[in-house]
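Predict the structure of Citrate transporter.
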Amino acid sequence: MPLQSIALILFILMYVVMIVKQEWRLYAIWAVALLFVGLGILQRNPLYLLSVINWNVIMMIGGTMVIVYYFIESKMPNRLAEIILDKCSNVMWVIILMSLFAGSVSAFIDNVATVLMIAPVGLAICKKIKISPIPMLLSIAVSSNLQGAATLVGDTTSIMLGGYAKMNFMEFFFMKGRPGMFFSVELGAMATVPIMMFLFRKFRQPVEATEKTEVEGYFPSIALIGVVVSLIVASFIPNTPGIINGLICCVIAVICMAVDFHVKKMPENLKKSLLSVDRETLLILMGLFLVIQGITDVGLIDLAAESIVKMGGNNLFLLYSIIVWGSVIFSAFIDNIPYVATMLPIITGICQLLQIEPYLLYFGLLTGATLGGNITPIGASANITAVGMLKQEGYNVGFGEFMKIGIPFTLAAAGTGYLFVWFIWR
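Done. Here is the predicted structure for Citrate transporter.
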C-alpha cells in the first residue's frame, strides 16, 4: 500500500479515536506521529523532526502560561470580573461582553495568548456567580479565533498572507481604496452577537459584584500589556527571527519570575509557576505539528488543495465559494498553517491564468481557513488551550458540546465574511 494511503488511514483513525475517546487524544496523536516516523512517512532525521515543531508557538504558549499564573495570583482577574459584572445585567451579557473583549484583544496578539490572558477572568466570573465555565471559555476561544485574522499581527495565517502578498499593517484595513480584512472580520464578529443571544438565552440570572477584591501587585498586569505591545512592535521590525514571539513571551515570563522572587522571597512560587504550564496541551500541539507535516510530506494537503481549485474551473464565484467553504471544512480538522502555505501559490497561479487580481481569493482563503478551526475543539490551538484549561478545572468538553457553540459561530461569521469579501473584491 502506498505511503499516501497509509498516512490518510492513520490520520482518519487518529481523529476517530479522539472523537470517541477524548481522554486518549494525546496518546492517539503521538502514536500516529511515531508510526509516521517508523514507516518513513516522516523523515527519521532528528533535526528535521525538531524543525517541524513550531517552537515559536510552543514557547509563546509556555511563556504566557507562566505570566498568566502570576496574573491570577495578583487577583487582577477577580477585580476585572467585578468590573464586568457591574456593567452587565445578567449572565448572558457577561458571556457576550467577555467574548467580544477577547476578540478585540485577539486582533492584535496571537489567539492562544489571548485565551491565556482572558480565560482566567472568565473563570473568576463563573466562580463568583457559581455557573459552569464551559460556555464562557468556549465563547472566548472561538471569538479569539474569529478576530485573529482582522490585522496583520493577529494570527499566523495573517502574517503568512501579509508576507506572501507584500501587505503592510494598514492594508488589512484599507487596500487599493477598498475596505480590507479587518472590516470583513469585524462584521463577522457582530453577526455572532445574535447567535450568542440565542445560544445563551436561558442564562438570565442577574449578576452583581458584591465585593471588591484588592489587587496584590500590578506588575503581572503590566507584563501582559508588555507582551501585547512587544508583539505589535516586533511585527514592524524586518528580518526578525522566526521564534521572536516565543522569545518575547519567555523573556517576559522570566522577568515576572525574577520580580516576584525579589519582592516576595518565596522560592516555592517559582516552582508553582513552572508547574502551572499545561504540559498536556503543549504535547498535543507538538504531536499535531508532526502529524500534519507527515500528511503534507506525502502530498495529501497538495492533493486536497488542487482538488478544490480544479472543481472551480473558470467560474470565479464557484471557485471563490469552493475556496472559502472548502477551507472551512479542512481547517476544522487540520492545522490551517500548512494548508494556507500550500494554497497561496496555487491561488496565485490560478489568478494569473484567469488574469485577475488575487486579493478576492486571498481574502476568501483567509476567511475560510481562519474561521474553520472553530468547528471542532482540535481545529485551532486556541480551542485546544481553552479545552485544556477547562480540563484542569475538572470539566471535560466533548466534540458534540464544543460544536454546539462552534458551528453556529462559524456559519454566522464565515457567511458574513464570505458575502462581504465577494461584494467588495469581486
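The longest helix spans residues 399-425.
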